[in-house]
Amino acid sequence: MKMTLMGTGTSHGVPVIACDCEVCKSTDQHDKRLRCSALVEHEDKKFLIDVGPDFREQALKFNLRHLDAVFITHSHADHLHGIDDLRIFSHKNSAAMCREQEILQKYPETSGEGLPLYTTERTKGYIHERFPYIFVDHDKGGGIPKLNLIGMDSNNSQNPLKIGGVEIVPVSMLHGNHHTIGFVFSYIDSSNIKKGIAYLTDCNFISDQSIAEVKKAGGQIEHLVIDALREREHSSHCNFSQALAYAEQICAKHTWFTHITHEKKHSKIQNYINEHLPEFPKLSQIVKNGGSVAPSYDGLILEA
Predict the structure, then answer these.
(1) Assessment of whether the complete model's pTM goes beyond 0.85
(2) CB 189: neighbour CB atoms within 10 A?
């Protein structure tokens, strides 16, 4: 199983529009960050996490050719508002087009209920409210994504969603006052060992119960991708210190900061981590044993 981080930036992206700071003017490609999104691949299956406004660019950049499912963490624009670009992976003709046989033959209707999109019941409601045209017939003049919205509220480590040899478990978190979910993807390797990758973006509070869920669901957690916006505290995102504290509890072999803003260059974030790592003895020992704690970057591939 592998995860490709297609975007690792905060809601503005980096560089930020109209900003001339050191980070936004940096020539280091590690400091170019699209909005957060990730692609999970296992055998012939491909799963997308979040579909923000940079999704079209990301799909072209990483040569995305098909999707088996989409997983949405929450309804904020930087994680959802590229939803129209899912059309190419599950095209739905308008009702008017479907009545015209010549057009229908050229652009056949996607079979089945559409591309599965998994999220919470709460976020399903937001998607229906924000994109109502997707879920109703419309006039001729273009297509809409054919999506099958599926709630994950009943899935947990005891009842994981299972798709093609992968188990997926949602993890409840808080993002200020907004409820979000992270995801743990796991599989059984050839040695019969359960290995996992945890993806926990957009949060500033993860309960002890949710931490326990991550550890139960992930088995041997090879990678933790965690929200770490900046050094200073924030009302709805983990800062670097909070991210390290949660990573200390989860104890993944490799920890990666994501959803990073433009306040520090990639290299300076690594310096911060190196300076403060001794405050976290479990993480320090993991690094001594060959693990790592580092800022992520667009295009990073995580293997489990």
Answers:
(1) yes
(2) 13
The two structure tokens encoding residue 68: 């088996």
Q: Determine phi and psi for 257, rounding to 5 degrees.
A: -75, 140
Spatial neighbors of 228 by CB under 8 A, at least 6 apart, are 237, 238, 239, 240, 242, 243, 257, 258, 259, 260, 295
Total residue count of the chain as it appears in this document:
304
Packing angle of the helix pair 240-250, 266-276 (nearest 10 deg): 60
Cβ-count burial of 285 within 10 angstroms (0-12 exposed, 13-18 middle, 19+ buried)? exposed
Find residue 9's DSSP bridge partners. Answer: 35, 260
For residue 47 the two structure tokens come to 């799963």
Q: Which of 184, 193, 293 is nearest to 243 (CA)?
A: 293
Q: Which of 252, 247, 238 has the alpha carbon at shortest distance from 277?
A: 247
Do 223 and 256 contact (CB within 8 A), yes or no?
yes
User: Using one digit for the tens of pLDDT, what is the confidence trace for 59-76?
Assistant: 999 999 999 999 999 999
Tokens of 194: 């359960």
Distance CA 255, CA 292 (A): 6
| Model pLDDT, residue 97 | 54
Q: What is the Cα Rg of the chain in Å?
A: 20
Tokens of 158: 């005891």
Using the structure block, give the residue that is written with the tokens 């059984």.
188
> Which position has the token pair 């999707």?
67
